Amino acid sequence: MRLVRRLAQLGPPVSGPVAADFAATPFARLARVQAFASACDAVVTASLAGSLFFSIPTGEARGQVALYLLLTIAPFAIVGPLIGPALDRAKGGRRMLIVGTGVVRVVICLAMARSVDSLLLFPLAFAFLVSGKAYLIARSALIPGVVRTDDELVEANSKLSLVSTILSAVGGVPGIIIQVVVGAEWSLALAAIIAAAQAVAALKLPRTRVAAEPETEVEEAELRSTGVVLASEAMGMLRGIVGFLTFLLAFDLRGGGGDTPVPAGLALGRAVRDSAGFESLGGTVDTGSPSWHFAAALAGAGVGTMLGSVVAPHLRRLASEERILRGVLAGTVVAGLLAALVGGVVGLVVAALAVGTAASTGKQCFDSIVQRDAPDANRGRSFARFETRFQLVWVLGGFLPVVVPIPARIGYVVLAAAAGFALSTYLAGQRGVGRRRRAGRGPFDAPAAETAVVGPRPDSEPELTVGPERRAP
Asked: In sequence order, which residues have a C-beta less than 8 Å from that of residue 27 and are 6 or more positions away?
């Protein structure tokens, strides 16, 4: 916890003996909520490892997972265009959404504890997943309101990512111990307690108003500038690759759908796999992969996420955000091909490590590009909008390996191809920007955004407002 406190030292200065307290700053309070949320995720993951969720035949599991992945799209489609703007303009709206996700998680965890050996565990597990994604969207909207200046946004995201990685690793340990000793029911009860702590901690977050007014024409134009659009497309592809790799490894380690009967589409995919001469890492569902293979994949992804969070701020001092994005996309291509060549456990670790690093580093770069190219845009509203889109792409990316039993080594090639496509598209878009600049038209599609002037906020307004015009309380 002392390490988490050090990571949370960001935000407006305070005086007196509480200056070193973990709850002294708004950012530190958000970091505490993030710690509880990550620990809850880790405990639930450990709880499900020995439950029906991983013991059901793979062919049946694919149909269940595919159905509930589709169902996860509906909440995001509603939260984005309908509920999102209303919460943005309501004082404390995003804070209450974070509190609400904690309360919902308590209910879900208790329901899962009563349904460990029932098929009801599938919809409950995916409801838990959706609540976690909703929390991430609300958290992204709140981050600009708990830092002193926009220059701290990348650092804040990096520190929250580190907190998440650390607590995900540490929080899973008691979950595993309780799951092995007394059963998944009790470890899920522990997850419910942690979720309740998340909800209580969220009550101490500042009552930030993300957007006091509807989106202006200047803000809309800046967010549609070429630099922001290209970066969002690249980041969206990286997030889709994360979803793809997550479910690719999950099913390949469980045996790749070798059990019968399976739908015609799955049988066709398995025939393609067999004719290509590839075998899944874990063999059939009857044998499965050793549990340490799963641990290796999770460790690779966790280390990659932490590595990206640590190196991103340093890379920004050496290269522009665009160059870093190009670099992580190129690195993902190389890592995907290398993983396909090597295969086995080494291949899955290489893929998980590279994708985790690329996604984490890319997110920091994307945040910085929005901050730089859209100075008049409201950060909370903008990040929430983009995060919603990225989560949708994550779901779509994960849907492909769920529907078709792709062997891991072929999946790595698909991963490399997707990253290569994103890289080529990004390079082509940047060349177009260069041509417009040489023609005297400027680097962006929205020149009016560069001349907009935003006046200061009245000092009499009591609440915080997320965005470039906000002030410290």
From this structure: 8, 10, 11, 146, 147, 156
